[in-house]
């Protein structure tokens, strides 16, 4: 429904103006040219292919749109945009290596399979066919009437192209994932073979409760050295952060309460003490002049009103006031101004477009001629409503005409053009009239109306409980005293002094330059703190003081460590791997203590544990509720009746004796089993393949380098 599709909002296509959150280094290109003597718009390369500033901004724009539509924050998406661009370049390179090309024909043939359109019934006819030509037409119309909207579509299209390429690439590589006959036979054997074992498990957790093991930096480093691929990392910083919120005091709260009470029942200074919220005759002007939040002229559902009045609003009389009451950090008084039901309307229309209007492709009539024709049709239909259908053949909205002109049920919240909604709201069932919009002249017939939920127009006078100058000064004094105490001190001193003062402390250990937000903080100063931490002059032990704009909040930051691109610094990943390393150290001690024990009973007694029994197989290596593939492997590798060597498992050290081996042949033929294994492998392959592709790619990231060089030039 081309015209209806234009009237209705299309958040996936007609996107609002969103201010792009550019990175700190995205400034005047001329100034950067002086620094580098080269193109500053290249932010990096993937296997030699450039990532441009424009591409980055477009990807960031799409992510911000998605975040806005989902009610998520739009800031802090820079690193995600970068990673998506890197992966998209890798996919594109594989797409082209396979001999494919993203032509216009390919794009329009494949777009129906993209996630944005595949499940959207608006773009499918009654038989389920995708309406490609209609979508093309809508985009061409947008190009003519909304250059800004069309430009936003081009940004979105680039993301769609990458997704289509990824779909083709993964479809091709998954076709090559098969399971050979020998492999299937071996896997079936592993599935059906069972081993009955007796075992003793020395649990790591229990052992470490009795035996204190300290993990040193060298222990962490040795583990990283044994698993280098797992610990490749980008540049990051280890930061200590102490946050000093400028929270309103009890005295500040009392000031706000006194002020709202005066406005509610006393009188404003401007009126000489005669006008207040209760007696004012102009509620909207009173709110605009005295409230910390603007007047809202909309009708709202009870659930959209302040929680304190939701239960009272249904029985309240027009003009009734509520409060003062407190909502979070605000004192509020409210007044019910009006209430009405939100009607749902069933309507139909005939559109008479004119040359040059968005719906006027192929139309030669002038605007005056269109109005004359619409008025004529409107007069006939108004006199004889049954003749409405006779004029549908003249409608320039052929898709709605095919539905008898129907626009379905709508409410005041339906995203139609304002003129259309105004007519529906102000006219009763059976009314027919002619309405002009940007699309032309609509002959509208209201077929039915039904009452909806009650809506309430409420004036809310709000006073924020804000920290006073004295409160902000006290917060500033506390923060400055703290930074004086920690300057030149060790990081342990920084932490201890913060904890002793009962201050809000956090420690993001792997903060990256373009994270946008800091773990444990989340203020408008986060990006500035990251910029400070990554300044190439910054040294470990440096401290800095920040003030959050508009709040009076203070932040003290300590640079505890610098991780450059390469292998992760052991201490920066301690939280991630300390437990694993500690378990390995425990496993070594346990194995040494077991030594050459002669029986399971002896080991059980030595470690104050018990002997247990289990049945295991290789394909599903579960032992007493824990997945232990090494233990299952040992069960089939040791001779029957023989005591195994200590096995370092995931949850403890095991020693076992195999009592018996049996075959439990499960139903299903080899072909069926082979297909299921192939499907499972194909599902697991994509993510692993993408990671491998990225790990082995030549990826150059110039973003930090650009920022640092620009920083030098500015100082």
Give a quick set of tags describing it.
715 residues; 19% strand; alpha+beta; four-stranded antiparallel beta sheet; disordered C terminus; 24 helices
Please state the average pLDDT score: 85
Computed structural class: alpha+beta
Tell me the fraction of residues in β-strands, as a range.
Answer: 15-25%
Gyration radius (Cα, Å) is 35 Å
Q: Kindly report the spatial arrangement of strands forming the biggest sheet.
A: 17-3-21-20
Outline the structure in words:
By secondary structure, the protein is of the alpha+beta class. The chain is built from 24 helices and 22 strands. The strands form seven sheets. It has a four-stranded antiparallel beta sheet with strand order 17-3-21-20. The longest helix is centred in the N-terminal third of the chain and has 29 residues, at 147-175. The two termini are 58 Å apart. Residues 1-38 and 711-715 have low confidence and may be disordered.
Concise structural overview:
Helix content is 42%, strand content 19%.
Question: What's the SSE blueprint?
Answer:
Layout: H1 2-7, H2 29-36, E1 42-46, E2 49-52, H3 53-69, H4 78-97, H5 104-110, H6 132-145, H7 147-175, H8 181-192, E3 193-203, H9 204-210, H10 217-226, E4 232-233, E5 236-244, H11 250-266, H12 283-290, H13 307-310, E6 321-327, E7 330-341, E8 344-352, H14 367-383, H15 398-401, E9 406-410, H16 418-426, E10 432-437, E11 440-450, E12 454-464, H17 469-486, H18 491-500, E13 504-506, H19 526-533, E14 543-547, E15 554-563, E16 566-567, H20 574-594, H21 600-606, E17 611-616, E18 622-623, E19 626-627, H22 629-637, E20 647-648, E21 652-663, H23 670-695, E22 699-701, H24 703-714
Antiparallel strand pairs: 1-2, 1-22, 3-17, 3-21, 4-16, 5-13, 5-15, 6-7, 7-12, 8-9, 8-11, 10-11, 14-15, 18-19, 20-21
């Amino acid at each position: 429904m081309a015209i209806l599709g234009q009237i209705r909002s299309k958040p996936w296509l007609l996107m609002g103006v969103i201010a792009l959150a550019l990175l700190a280094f995205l400034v005047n290109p001329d100034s950067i040219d002086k620094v580098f003597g080269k193109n500053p718009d290249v932010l990096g390369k993937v296997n030699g292919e450039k990532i441009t500033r424009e591409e980055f901004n477009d990807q960031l724009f799409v992510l911000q749109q998605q975040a806005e539509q989902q009610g998520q924050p739009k800031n802090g998406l820079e690193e995600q945009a970068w990673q998506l661009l890197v992966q998209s370049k890798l996919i594109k390179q594989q797409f082209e290596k396979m001999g494919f090309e993203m032509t216009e024909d390919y794009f329009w043939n494949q777009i129906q399979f993209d996630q944005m359109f595949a499940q959207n019934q608006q773009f499918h006819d009654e038989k389920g066919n995708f309406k490609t030509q209609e979508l093309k037409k809508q985009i061409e119309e947008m190009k003519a009437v909304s250059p800004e909207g069309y430009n936003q579509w081009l940004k979105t299209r680039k993301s769609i192209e990458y997704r289509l390429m990824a779909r083709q690439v993964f479809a091709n590589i998954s076709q090559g994932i098969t399971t050979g006959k020998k492999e299937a036979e071996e896997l079936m054997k592993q599935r059906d073979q069972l081993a009955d074992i007796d075992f003793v498990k020395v649990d790591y957790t229990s052992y470490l409760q009795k035996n204190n093991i300290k993990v040193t930096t060298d222990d962490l480093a040795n583990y990283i050295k044994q698993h280098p691929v797992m610990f490749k990392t980008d540049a990051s910083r280890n930061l200590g952060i102490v946050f000093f919120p400028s929270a309103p005091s009890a005295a500040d709260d009392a000031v706000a309460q006194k002020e709202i009470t005066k406005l509610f029942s006393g009188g404003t200074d401007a009126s000489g003490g005669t006008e207040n919220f209760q007696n004012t005759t102009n509620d909207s002007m009173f709110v605009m002049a005295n409230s910390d939040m603007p007047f809202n002229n909309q009708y709202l559902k009870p659930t959209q009103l302040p929680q304190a009045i939701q239960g009272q609003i249904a029985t309240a009389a027009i003009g009734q006031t509520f409060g003062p009451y407190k909502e979070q950090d605000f004192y509020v008084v409210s007044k019910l101004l009006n209430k009405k039901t939100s009607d749902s309307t069933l309507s139909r229309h005939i559109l008479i477009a004119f040359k040059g209007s968005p719906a006027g492709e192929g139309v030669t009539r002038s605007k005056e001629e269109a109005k004359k024709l619409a008025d004529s049709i409107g007069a006939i239909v108004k006199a004889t409503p049954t003749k409405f259908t006779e004029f549908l053949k003249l409608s320039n909205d052929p898709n709605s005409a095919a539905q008898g002109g129907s626009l379905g049920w709508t409410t005041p919240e339906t995203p139609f053009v304002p003129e259309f909604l105004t007519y529906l709201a102000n006219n009763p069932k059976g009314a027919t009239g002619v309405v002009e919009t940007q699309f032309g002249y609509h002959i509208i017939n209201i077929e039915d109306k039904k009452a909806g939920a009650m809506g309430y127009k409420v004036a809310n006078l709000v006073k924020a409980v804000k920290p006073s100058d004295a409160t902000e000064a006290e917060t500033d004094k506390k923060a400055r005293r703290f930074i004086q105490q920690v300057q030149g001190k060790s990081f342990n001193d920084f932490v201890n002094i913060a904890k002793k003062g009962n201050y809000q402390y956090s420690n993001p250990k792997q903060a990256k330059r373009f994270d946008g937000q800091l773990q444990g903080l989340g203020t408008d100063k986060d990006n500035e703190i990251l910029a400070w931490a990554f300044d190439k002059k910054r040294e470990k032990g440096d401290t800095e003081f920040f003030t959050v704009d508009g709040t009076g909040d203070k932040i003290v930051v300590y640079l505890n460590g610098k991780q450059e691109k390469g292998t992760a610094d052991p201490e920066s990943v301690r939280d991630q791997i300390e437990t694993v390393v500690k378990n390995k150290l425990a496993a070594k001690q346990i194995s040494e203590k077991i030594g050459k024990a002669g029986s399971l009973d002896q080991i059980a007694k030595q470690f104050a544990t018990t002997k247990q029994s289990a049945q295991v197989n290789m394909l599903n290596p579960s032992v007493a509720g824990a997945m232990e593939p090494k233990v299952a492997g040992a069960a089939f590798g040791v001779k029957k009746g023989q005591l195994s060597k200590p096995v370092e498992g995931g949850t403890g050290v095991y020693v076992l004796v195999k009592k018996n081996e049996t075959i439990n042949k499960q139903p299903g033929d080899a072909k069926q089993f082979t297909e299921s294994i192939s499907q499972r492998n194909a599902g697991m392959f994509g993510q692993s393949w993408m990671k491998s592709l990225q790990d082995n790619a030549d990826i150059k990231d110039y973003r930090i380098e650009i920022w640092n060089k620009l920083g030098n030039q500015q100082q």
